């Protein structure tokens, strides 16, 4: 018995999603044993699409270029709402936030100028602290050192922060081992100027740089580049454009949006490493992406101080309680850039007590 055209058409229509899945599956999930599952990838893509669509000025309208002629009206509505640009603090952690009492002091009295978001590895033991950190946990996935899961976690933090508050302008990624080196007011004024001039961030966002370390002459650069295979990164990432830098950064909103919208470079950096001794994707992806996309819009240096003297197994120096002193804070602040360092890492949880003792008279007394 012959099959009617209607039945054939219906069969093709019903099979279309399955055909599309198998057609695009190699692009979405081209290798076995990837650090991120297909489900995690699809969840992230949906999140990033929502954040990209919601990217807006604080007036609530879709973002346009910085030269938009319609901005004065938007700025008037912004001024009426008295919504100054904010800094989104993105805590990426796989353990408790031991220094939350110190950060509480740092944030105290500045609730209109910041937001907090926490990505905590759900497979780790994590007890969200009270106070300003309460109910700041975003939907999180498992993370693993020397794998693209750390990139994915940072991208989730950026996307959630963009979705949550249109006033978020800077996005500062820190870890549970980071501590502030200055008062919040000092940092905010250094980035934006006073409360009035801070509105310039909405008028001329292109004038503000992202603070991220971007290096092209580090030892073992080629070994890092070829950690997934000698030619795997081609053609999207030629070796000449591969960069390294610090995992922790402070990005402007335009660069945060660029990160969550990227699929081209992510398709390479998400691949598993064959040589894990040289593979630190979180230190490669962000510097490479921003260097390829907007090198002049980045500082090429970080605002987070790290001491690599005596580093071991890829970890920097770990400060102990007996090292904490006013002299150390002043030393950690010193920088060769236009800014002194705002944050420092890496500290043991036992450093909290001596840090709290000098918080008011040293750390937050600029």
UniProtKB/TrEMBL annotation:
Pfam family, any one: Branch
Membrane topology qualifier: Single-pass type II membrane protein
Location in or out of the cell: Membrane
Keywords from the UniProt entry: Glycoprotein, Glycosyltransferase, Membrane, Transferase
GO CC, alphabetical: membrane
One GO MF term attached to the UniProt entry: glycosyltransferase activity
Keyword Glycoprotein included in the entry's annotation: yes
Protein name as annotated: Core-2/I-branching beta-1,6-N-acetylglucosaminyltransferase family protein
Organism of derivation: Corymbia citriodora subsp. variegata
